[in-house]
Amino acid sequence: MKTCACCGIAKEPDKFGVDHHRKDGLNPYCNPCRRTKAKATRNRYGAALNAAQKEARKKDPHRFRGHEAKYRAANLAKRRESARIYSQNRRLLNPEEAAAYRAVNRLAIREKSRSYYRRNVPAYRARDKQRFRLEKLATPKWLSAIRFAQMEEFYEIAAAREVQTGIKHHVDHMFPLSGITFHGLHVPWNLQVLTHEQNRAKSNRIPLEYAHLTWSVL
Ligand SMILES: [Zn+2]
Predict the structure, then answer these.
(1) How far apart are the CA of 202 and the centre of ligand 1, in A?
(2) Residue 193 β-bridge partners
(3) Model-level pTM?
(4) How many other CB atoms sit within 10 Å of the CB of residue 148?
(5) pLDDT (tens digit, 0 to 9) for every residue of the chain, 218 residues total?
(6) How far is the CA of 5 from the centre of ligand 1 (A)?
(7) How far is the CA of 29 from the centre of ligand 1 (A)?
(8) Are residues 78 and 85 in contact, defined by beta-carbon separation less than 8 angstroms?
(9) How far apart are the CA of 40 and the centre of ligand 1, in A?
(10) How many CB atoms lie within 10 A of CB 32?
(11) Which of 44, 100, 145, 178 has its CA 20 to 30 A from that of 129?
């Protein structure tokens, strides 16, 4: 048992914080007292300390520059993610503001996305290559020329709908080429034209109306 120097109550040693500078290795104040004291100090000096630090930063910005760069470098991914969420929420909550911003900054936005593309050309190439490889693997050798022409048509329809509606359209494989439990074929009867949103929602799953088949096929 140890008596707290603040409240004078005798308590078990585990109710005291560790302090290696003390003879008994424990803080003289019990944990609840320590918390109360810390809170009081914060209340008393917190605002003044913050103001002093702000003042010091204003007076000598170079002194803290290293700290900020270090913090930024250490938390790069975290900061990017929170910035992304912030701007996404802002876009969703203020669609008019977002549209106005897009209208004013159309060229800058285009340049930004182009520059992103240029910086990630290898990744885009790899993805296209993978897609091409998948399609080739999924195209049966016995497919006739007329079937190839029919497939071409789906891509033309998607392009035309995109022009007409201004909404991005994709040619989708109803049974995905790289499904989770199977591989669909690159054949006209497995193709459909979807909007970008519909296609994204679908992901790599098979059509719902065929879901009951999977247990017997597997
Ligand atoms: Zn105490």
Answers:
(1) 61
(2) 171
(3) 0.47
(4) 14
(5) 999 999 999 999 999 998 889 988 999 999 999 999 999 988 888 888 888 888 988 888 888 878 888 888 899 999 999 999 999 899 889 989 999 999 999 999 999 999 999 999 999 999 999 999 999 999 999 999 999 999 999 999 999 999 999 889 999 998 888 877 778 899 999 999 999 888 888 776 777 777 666 554 43
(6) 7
(7) 5
(8) no
(9) 14
(10) 14
(11) 145
